[in-house]
Predict the 3D structure of the following.
Amino acid sequence: MSVFRDDFLWGGACAANQFEGAWDVDGKGDSVPDHCTNGSNTNPKRITEAFEEGTLYPSHEAIDFYHHYEGDIALFAEMGFKTFRTSINWTRIFPTGEEAEPNEKGLAFYDRVFDCCKKYGIEPLVTISHYELPYALVKKYNGWADRRLVDLYMNYCKTIFERYKDKVKYWLTFNEINAGTMRFGALLSLGTCQGYTGVGFEIPDDIQTRYQALHHQFVASAKAVIYAHEHYPQFKMGNMICYSAAYPLTCDPNDVMAAQQQMDNMNWYCSDVQCLGEYPYFAKRFWAEHGIQIHMEPGDKELLKKGTVDFYTFSYYMSTCVTTHADAETIGGNLLGGTKNPYLKASDWGWQIDPVGLRWSLNQIYARYHKPLMVVENGLGAYDEKGPDGKIHDSYRIDYLRSHIEQMAEAVKDGVDLMGYTPWGCIDLVSASTGEMAKRYGFIYVNKFDDGTGDLSRERKDSFYWYQKVIASNGADLS
Ligand code: BGP
């Protein structure tokens, strides 16, 4: 018997810059990821200002969803998707972020996508900004470091809200807004990388600028929520956090404290603002110890208080350990690595697989906010090899997803209000951290490779048929 709500939103998630391609088609401008080269686990991607001859920029073609959307959405429908999380590429609508009028061809593309979803009864879940800042705003303003970005974002929001008001009900203001608490968030989400070229992870850190830029995103998020609530009462507005589940490596109280501080700084710092409407109690000490001064304009506190979200969403791939002991072994991870957990196995990219950590996280978050939750990213990035029959038998991916859904069910039984689940990269797409195609998450295989070759054809993996059964049984049949 299913423990999930009858209206549970099963689906999948993608981001425009990682799967649309058509980076300069129909009037689209260039966004930050369009300036990122491909890379790998061992050879990190770079950002370049000018496009280098002979260098591959994976977002430029990606998997060309732009021209394949009808077939792809039909495949999502075949799996039984109730929802599809995607983002709108800001530069399709406002190529430099500052035009007086939106780009009609860009708007028309998303009309086609949402209409196609509607045809199959799929509810779109739209991320307004998923690591897709117009590059022109980096060059001119140093991204979100400049408060004028708030108005430009609001202009973009007003345009898409009005255009899609009858087609989209669920909105997320910023993908993984807490990326801004980390050094390379400067490039990924804040766009405070004016003039920087080189390896993304090596971007020089300026913590003052980062936290001020993050404040501007909080204000923008709150304003978008307030505006939506005032003009479109049918909208449901959500936040989105890259959730860091951090365990103390040992029972040394110093490790326990260090783990709590990591959770505070990486998770609650942002979601307290977006869910409770104010900076958490520990922020003042954190700012003082890091020499950060947040400049607030009159009215900001009231805006944050009023602009709290209706539901909380997050990505969850893994957990880490935290320790104060210098000899511990480290591992990689989503946005942030950490210390190796001896009880867990890791993916080929070193991300530690921890389904129980998802139950723990759901409980932690729900206890703090009592808002409906949604897991909007989860999944296993893996190398897929075709079997002798030419098909992908991805039992490892099924195992990963099954064990996480089992723990979601436990959390629901614990009393958590869980409204949906959209595994990441439901169709293979470009990796955000490495720029690879080889790191695949999809239920649908895309014939596209790291050297840019491939005919872009789509094939169903074993996990496709498995997920179809899961959805049909509302999560009761995980066999
Ligand atoms: C999240 C991002 C996604 C996505 C995912 C998987 O941090 O929101 O955009 O890419 O991680 O990460 P990766 O692509 O690096 O494997």
